[in-house]
Amino acid sequence: MTFIEVKNLWKIYGKGEAKTVVLKGLNLKIDKGEFVIITGPSGCGKSTFLNILGLLDVPNKGMVYINGKKTTLMSENERAIFRRKISGFVFQQFHLINTLTALENVELPMMLNEMDKSYRIKRAKKLLKSVGLEKRANHYPNQLSGGQMQRVAIARALANKPKIIFADEPTGNLDSKSGNQVMNMLRELHDNGITIIMVTHELEYTRYATKVVKMKDGEIIDIVEH
Ligand SMILES: Nc1ncnc2c1ncn2[C@@H]1O[C@H](COP(=O)(O)OP(=O)(O)OP(=O)(O)O)[C@@H](O)[C@H]1O
């Protein structure tokens, strides 16, 4: 069943001399349960595309459909619910909050969804355990390695039981061992039915994907189904 579809998607920054056409009429269909990897050279528009798919950004032209519904017909509240409850986000730079412990970082999305404290703590502990970090619950990000920070970020992305994970170069700042750990976690989530859309330029990870979308200069130049 189609989960997300984009038709004729354009993204343009600036005007006149400063105009940059970043996405040039993209078309893509993503089914529920897929593991999509978007790849291509630096600057080809991968992150921009991912941000639009995750409703973090809007196109200048074209349409994003979620479950067949035009996202332009969704209210701001519906879009926020998609970001906050249906989706989980993982970024290259982790984006943890430095003044919060690992446990509190994982609790945060549940706070935004107004879950009560005892539930939050129980679930955050369970999630940290699932990423092998139960002993690091009270550590702050600066007391963790890059790989550990990314595992906290994955636990945080899972806090509200998302149906889809958007991951932008999640292994980009990690050594290969930590990178493989992160990929194995994403694979396990995919095995459990979560849809994954991931941007990477590391071609070795395309073996995890059900669909590889190759981009170049703002266009999709190839789609390979595995
Ligand atoms: N806010 C912005 N204003 C102007 N140009 C932008 C903006 N955001 C991105 N761009 C430009 O859009 C192009 C695509 O950027 P994007 O980050 O999507 O590429 P990418 O493929 O993810 O690159 P990388 O692999 O290096 O992260 C780049 O040329 C970038 O400079």
Explain what you see.
This protein has 226 residues and is of the alpha/beta class. It has one domain: Rossmann fold (3-Layer(aba) Sandwich), CATH 3.40.50.300. The protein has six helices and ten strands. It has a six-stranded mixed β-sheet, sandwiched between helices. Helix 3 packs across helix 4 and helix 3 packs parallel to helix 5. The two termini are 17 Å apart. Bound molecules: adenosine-5'-triphosphate. The site of adenosine-5'-triphosphate has 11 residues, from strand 2 and helix 1. Adenosine-5'-triphosphate binds next to strand 2 and helix 1. One of its GO terms (cellular component) is membrane protein complex. Keywords: ATP-binding, Hydrolase, Nucleotide-binding, Transport. Its EC number is 3.6.3.28. GO terms for molecular function: ATP binding; ATP hydrolysis activity; transmembrane transporter activity. This is Phosphonate-transporting ATPase.
